What does this fold into?
Amino acid sequence: MSEPLDLSLRGQAAAIAAGEIDASELLQATLARIEERDPAINAIVETFPARSREMLVAAPSGPLHGVPVVIKDEWPLPWRAQRFGAADMLAKTSPGESGPYRALRDAGAVIVGVGNMHELGSGSTGNVSVYGPARNPWNVERCPGGSSSGPAAAVAGRLVAGAVGADGVGSIRYPATYCGLTGLKPTYGRSAMDGHHMAGVSTTIVSGPLCLDAGDCRLLGSVLYGGELRAGEASDLRIGIVENEVSEDVAPAVREACETAIEELRQATGGEVRKVELPELSAATLATVLIANSESLGSVTPERLNDLDPSLSPLGRGLLKYRLMLPAVATVKAHQVRAMARQRLAEVFEEVDLIAWPTVPAVAPPLEAPLVELPSGTLTADAANVRGGALANLTGIPAISVPVGSSEGLPIGLQLQAAWGRDELLLDAAEALEGANGRRWVEAAPPVPVDQAEA
Amino acid sequence: MEASKGADDFIPAALAAFGVEADEIELAVMDAAHEIFWPPILELLSLDTSVSASEPAPDLSQAPPRR
It folds into this structure.
């Protein structure tokens, strides 16, 4: 058998169930690997071996019995309040049970650590965090993506085989792409979300899995959804493509890899590629940002803004204060753009089963200067990434990022989006694509990360 | 009158109106954010979105009701 730590999530679960792996030994080995590898990538901000052992001792038989996983610093645990990657998150938090925690516990999983994240969830790169930046295992000088930076880096670095992230404006899909993983953003409301400090307020955030491949996302996703994401066969897929900046203002290598993958998916499913029109896309991107930012303003008061923890990054402090100045009329219009985009998507999904475009337009940028070079010029990674990531959060549809190539030694991801509730189709399509490319990209592994301080 | 993209007047005035203090670095961040956000906000404000059917309290887990 392969090294147990390098097995897939379902491989670990099956091996434990078959008695081929001792879950206690796997837990010990996982904690040892975190100790060995994490200094180089800063994916895990806290481990709690005694709590993890308690979870294992109490673990019921379930689909993830004894399997180690990581959860993002966005939900409370019974022994730890979330910090949201920030020295000051303007919301009161306390330890407690969250929906994702209960789902993992009831599935028999063992939470071995909390994953790093971009400060306040407000960036797509992962290079800003109260814990210091997480690093990309493919190249530790590059961004791991955000805001679910730690969960992605932990899985890509083979510290664990599965992690729970959150996606409010692309925050599962961006790091999945940068780190060469499969990341699923569920249909709004389908996955466990209670206990999140924005639950009941946010209309964009969902929990979701970050894993090595679609099969693992199906397993961990089923746990988070509270019901099986049944496998089907993706056939005769009508794949929609758009001809605008999300597919055209893209680095050449990314464009080529994604176009190749779309053609492979078409061939593998006996389907067809159709052009679709999404004229609302540009306004939809801004609308998403406005809605997501305005929803987080409830705890903001001038007094609190004048009393921010000085350890909060200057970027975080400045952006929090800038949010006060977003005009209300723009947010009202943003909600109307949301209605328009949802109507348009409902029409489009009568013509096609999926919409495909690059998850992000360029590979992971440097941590020190997260800028990307595109045909239109140099952009911040955040400004570039949000173009393709926002629509699913604005409208509620599910989306998945699948690894489909590599450039400069860094992964490339293709995003597939489907109609509301068709999350299973995304997994079926992702598996069809994996089959079509011989699982080349989901099985690609980064080098063992080396701590630069020790190198 | 043409809309201003500059943050020089807007941000200090808004901060003063809210009674919020900001240091030089925070002001620089806000200037940069303003440069990114303001042009598309002005573009959004120029759209007449009242022509779209509104969807009050949308159920984001489902497709919108058919028009």
